Amino acid sequence: MKNVTVAAVVLALIATPALAQGRRGGGGQDKQTEKKPQIDEKAYKSALDRIPEPKEKYDPWGMTKPADPTKKPK
């Protein structure tokens, strides 16, 4: 009988941390109540249209490797 009691106590002590890990508390917000910002397609397109076009094409290697071998890098 003593062995059964000791085994029950050991199982209870082992199961307690596992039970605590399995519980999900109400500490966070639900995904259903979380509001996402509305995307306004019209405003997005108008913002893209306001970006000016570059006058010259940007060359990331222009400083290190000129396109024309006779030209010196800046």
From N to C, what is the helix and strand string? HH
Rough shape? elongated
**Beta-strand content bin:** under 5%
Multimeric status of the protein: single chain
Computed over alpha carbons, the radius of gyration is 33 Å
Whole-number average pLDDT?
76
What does this protein look like?
With 74 residues, this protein is mainly alpha-helical. It has two helices and no strands. The longest helix has 21 residues. The model has no long low-confidence stretch (mean pLDDT 76).
Short summary of the structure?
The protein is mainly alpha-helical and 74 residues long.
How would the blueprint of this fold be written?
Layout: H1 2-22, H2 41-49
List keywords for this structure.
elongated; 74 residues; mainly alpha
